[in-house]
User: What shape does this take?
Amino acid sequence: MVVGLYVIIVYDIMEKRVSKVCNFLRIYLNWIQNSVFEGEITEGKLEEIRIGLKNIIDKNEDSILIFTVSNKKWLNKEILGIEKAPISTII
Amino acid sequence: MVVGLYVIIVYDIMEKRVSKVCNFLRIYLNWIQNSVFEGEITEGKLEEIRIGLKNIIDKNEDSILIFTVSNKKWLNKEILGIEKAPISTII
Assistant: This one.
């Protein structure tokens, strides 16, 4: 088994590209909040995400943050208020 | 020296409370993108943040994600596109 990375992606992109980015990230990760996706993924798939996002975004207008931890157990997640994506798994 | 947690906070809140949440989080953390703050912080200060945010938000309308890692070195950060907050330190 390939040990996966745990990734959190937060995007701040122009309205006209939001649905494209969102639909692309859904292929790989779980949507957990407006503009936030997370999930366990291999380094190879993460590289596909980087390439895919670079093709979609305008690098002069959009900004995407990619946080990764090598082991999911190192990352703790809490939610205050409502959980926007109730089907997502709490770490 | 108290060893700090590294925290990422992403909020999805009603427009009318955005500036209040933003100004509150600025006291403790660095703004790195629309709706995203990060920084190194003690558990005590993080508890202050939790209490403060709970006082500001409407728990039926707003959602705040708090990710923490015990050691900053476990977390990797990349940016695709523009860096919205150029003064922030890249991990």
Q: What stands out?
A: Chain A has one domain: 5-74.
